[in-house]
Each structure stands twice: as structure tokens, then as C-alpha cells.
């Protein structure tokens, strides 16, 4: 029984081939412009406010929507739905369980994964978005449910707009694969 368990960890296929230099360039350009747009708006316009526009989970979203554009996890429904749904769950977990942050963190992530599965919006960075709502500190906690709109929805929409433009400039790329 133990041998069978460990055999499952050996893998069943080979690693995919490398992508072309042009594919690397377009991934780089999209991620640079997407994160730059969100970070510029954050630093240029929100620096002196209690609002924030950029969160760590957007880095992981950039990998998907600019670097793995054909993945089901990178499609607009998943990007927006996964982040927004997970933000709702993360804020709710914090508000209900702030006296037990470890429990709020675990529930925020696990409930977000289940909810994303059930709504067909699985987006791995959504788990981080839920977790950030719990561990993000006073500035994030003060936002309350505004966290869902700003930074989460607004930032994801900006990154999606950049993805729609940059990913379709390249003659060999097409994004999205589907919307719904």
C-alpha cells in the first residue's frame, strides 16, 4: 500500500517543451504592463489615501493571464470570479473569526477553493486574495468589504484590460479562450 502511494509521485508524463523566445517576450511585456498599470495607479493616486490597488496575489495572476493564456485558470471568468468570490469569503472570514486569525486564514482559503470549484471560477491566486484579507494587516482590515471592490475587482479589471490588448497584439496568441 505504501509503495503504491509513493509510485503515484513519480509522474506519468514528460515536462512540456520550452516556449519560444517570442512567447517569453509577450509574457514579459504583458506582465510588465499589467503590474505597472496597477502599481502606477496605486503609487500615483492612492499613496496618500487609506485605499490600496495592488496586492500580492496579482503577481500570480500575471503568470496565468500573460504567461499561460490558454489555461482554463487564466480565463476572464476565472480571473474575475476567482478573485472577487475569494475576496468576499476572506473578508467574511476575518470579520467572523478575527479573534482566531489562524482559523480565519484556514477557512478563508479552503472555503474559497470550494466556492471557486462550485462556481467554475478556479483561479489559484484567489486563494491568496482570500488569505490577504485575513493576514493583510490594519490597512486591509480597515477596508472591510471595500477590499472586494478596491483593490481586488479594480486591479483584476485593469490587468484583464491589459491582457486583452497585449495578448492579442501577437499574431500567434489569442486571449481569451472563452468568457463564460
From TrEMBL:
<feature type="transmembrane region" description="Helical">
    <location>
        <begin position="102"/>
        <end position="122"/>
    </location>
</feature>
<keyword id="KW-0472">Membrane</keyword>
<protein>
    <submittedName>
        <fullName>HPP family protein</fullName>
    </submittedName>
</protein>
<feature type="transmembrane region" description="Helical">
    <location>
        <begin position="143"/>
        <end position="166"/>
    </location>
</feature>
<feature type="domain" description="HPP transmembrane region">
    <location>
        <begin position="17"/>
        <end position="176"/>
    </location>
</feature>
<keyword id="KW-1133">Transmembrane helix</keyword>
<feature type="transmembrane region" description="Helical">
    <location>
        <begin position="51"/>
        <end position="69"/>
    </location>
</feature>
<feature type="transmembrane region" description="Helical">
    <location>
        <begin position="21"/>
        <end position="39"/>
    </location>
</feature>
<dbReference type="Pfam" id="PF04982">
    <property type="entry name" value="TM_HPP"/>
</dbReference>
<dbReference type="InterPro" id="IPR058581">
    <property type="entry name" value="TM_HPP"/>
</dbReference>
<dbReference type="InterPro" id="IPR007065">
    <property type="entry name" value="HPP"/>
</dbReference>
<keyword id="KW-0812">Transmembrane</keyword>
Amino acid at each position: 500500500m505504501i509503495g503504491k502511494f509513493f509510485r503515484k509521485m513519480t509522474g506519468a508524463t514528460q515536462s512540456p517543451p520550452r516556449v519560444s523566445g517570442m512567447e517569453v517576450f509577450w509574457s514579459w511585456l504583458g506582465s510588465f504592463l499589467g503590474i505597472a498599470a496597477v502599481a502606477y495607479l496605486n503609487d500615483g493616486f492612492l499613496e496618500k489615501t487609506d485605499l490600496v490597488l495592488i496586492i500580492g496575489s496579482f503577481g500570480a495572476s500575471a503568470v496565468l493571464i500573460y504567461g499561460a493564456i490558454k489555461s482554463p485558470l487564466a480565463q476572464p471568468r476565472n480571473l474575475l470570479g476567482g478573485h472577487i468570490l475569494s475576496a468576499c469569503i476572506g473578508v467574511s472570514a476575518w470579520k467572523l473569526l478575527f479573534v482566531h486569525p489562524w482559523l480565519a486564514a484556514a477557512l478563508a482559503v479552503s472555503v474559497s477553493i470550494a466556492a471557486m470549484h462550485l462556481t467554475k471560477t478556479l483561479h489559484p491566486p484567489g486563494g491568496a486574495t482570500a488569505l490577504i484579507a485575513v493576514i493583510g494587516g490594519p490597512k486591509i482590515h480597515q477596508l472591510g468589504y471595500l477590499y472586494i471592490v478596491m483593490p481586488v475587482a479594480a486591479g483584476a479589471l485593469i490587468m484583464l484590460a491589459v491582457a486583452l490588448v497585449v495578448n492579442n497584439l501577437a499574431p500567434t496568441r489569442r486571449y481569451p479562450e472563452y468568457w463564460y
